[in-house]
Design goal:
Blueprint (H helix, E strand, L loop, with lengths): L2 H27 L3 H30 L8 H27 L3 H39 L2
Helix pairs in contact: 1-2, 1-4, 2-3, 3-4
Length: 141
């Protein structure tokens, strides 16, 4: 993927994630829309930078042929990504939510499960859609 496409990939991933996650986070935390949106956008910006760097490195190690990746590698990809974010998100979540370490850790692990599933599905759909769009453009169909 080009840098421009990696940016598009990251932005699409985060925008869709925010649409899905903010209402869920509001229900779980009993915090208002403003607080959860600001927190989610902050974490999203951090995640976008991490996403760009992580995927660039992951492609370097596992190859750029993203369509050949099967479920075990996709699960490994998503899990490693989310574990990297835990180190950054815990202190920020504790500060904003004013909850104990264990409470925030439980919430963060719940978010990791959500985003692990979301990331696997999003990336698989993105890769298939990308392939179909570029294949159509190249073949004229």
């Amino acid at each position: 993927m080009t840098i421009k496409e990696r940016v598009l990939h990251s932005v699409l991933f985060e925008v869709i994630a925010l649409i899905l996650f903010v209402p869920l986070a509001m229900m779980v935390t009993d915090k208002g829309a403003g607080t959860m949106t600001a927190l989610s956008v902050s974490l999203s910006l951090i995640a976008m930078v991490w996403n760009f760097v992580y995927n660039w490195g992951f492609d370097g190690v596992f190859g750029a042929d993203r369509l050949s990746r099967r479920l075990p590698l996709r699960l490994f990809h998503g899990l490693c990504f989310e574990l990297g974010l835990i180190f950054v998100s815990l202190p920020l979540l504790m500060y904003v939510l004013q909850e104990s370490f264990l409470t925030v850790l439980a919430m963060d692990l719940g978010a990791v499960v959500f985003f692990l599933v979301y990331a696997v599905v999003f990336n698989w759909v993105y890769d298939i859609t990308r392939d179909r769009l570029f294949s159509s453009a190249l073949t004229g169909k």
